[in-house]
Amino acid sequence: GAGVSQSPSNKVTEKGKDVELRCDPISGHTALYWYRQRLGQGLEFLIYFQGNSAPDKSGLPSDRFSAERTGESVSTLTIQRTQQEDSAVYLCASSLDGALNTEAFFGQGTRLTVV
Amino acid sequence: GDSVTQMEGPVTLSEEAFLTINCTYTATGYPSLFWYVQYPGEGLQLLLKATKADDKGSNKGFEATYRKETTSFHLEKGSVQVSDSAVYFCALSDPNFGNEKLTFGTGTRLTIIP
């Protein structure tokens, strides 16, 4: 597609339920990032995929969070047993090769609300 | 660890005013520095970048100079327009961490009134 696509754009879920967020990166981009933005805060790094290398999961806040990526295409971020503090906008970005002199392109995000 | 501190908003200016949004950083190595912008209803997009000390990034009339001595990367524009209303994020990447994570500031919401 023309840009990074995320779905759903909005998700309201009950505390304790699992949610799955999807990211379609720009075709040909080998690097994919997930970030989280809580209200009034900066962007918090979650996870980074680059090609076939092992992902950098150092930003995942707990073992309730996991992410998968199929080859160099779609990624899903899964949050199990959601908590109210998981409420945030989850942003996905992709870049051509992951070197940060290369521009990262962001999706419009998924706004997650846990009630 | 790495961190980015930027001017808190919101910032409201009149059209044609001079803009400065301050950004300072902490990093262990020699990071690359970025400004990203998020226009209403759109995703974040790169506005400008600088990869080494004294470099000046520029785009769409915006400029920022990489100042190693003051660890700063302030965003400036001489004459703002209504269309510049957006949220601006300062960010860095630190190659000493051996990865490509972007560390972001909290964002500054800018509103330009006619």
Gross morphology of chain A is globular
- Percent in strands of chain A: over 45%
Number of helices of chain A: 0
Task: Report how far the terminal alpha carbons of chain B are from each other.
Answer: 41 Å
Write down the oligomeric state.
heterodimer
> Based on DSSP secondary structure assignment, what is the total number of beta strands of chain B?
12
How many helices of chain B in DSSP terms? 0
Helix content of chain B: under 10%
What's the rounded overall pLDDT mean of chain B? 91
Span from first to last CA of chain A?
Answer: 33 Å
**Structural class, from helix and strand content of chain A?**
mainly beta
Sheet of most strands of chain B: 6 strands, mixed
Pair with the biggest interface: A-B, 28 and 24 residues
Q: Give the amount of beta strand of chain B, in percent.
A: over 45%
Overall pLDDT score of chain A? 91
Short description:
The complex is a heterodimer of chains A (115) and B (114). Chain A has 115 residues and is an all-beta fold.
Keywords:
heterodimer; A: 115 residues; mainly beta; six-stranded mixed beta sheet; 0% helix; B: 114 residues; four-stranded antiparallel beta sheet; 12 strands; 49% strand
Q: Could you please describe the fold and organization of this structure?
A:
Chain A is 0% helix and 47% strand. Chain A is an all-beta fold and 115 residues long. In chain A, a hairpin with a 5-residue loop joins β4 (31-37) and β5. Chain A starts with a strand and ends with a strand. With 114 residues, chain B is mainly beta. Helices cover 0% and strands 49% of the residues of chain B. Chain B is built from no helices and twelve strands. Chain B has strands spanning 3-6, 11-14, 19-21, 23-26, 32-38, 45-50, 56-59, 62-65, 75-77, 86-93, 102-104, 108-113. The N and C termini of chain B lie far apart (41 Å). At the A-B interface, β4, β5, β8 and β9 of A face β6, β10 and β11 of B.
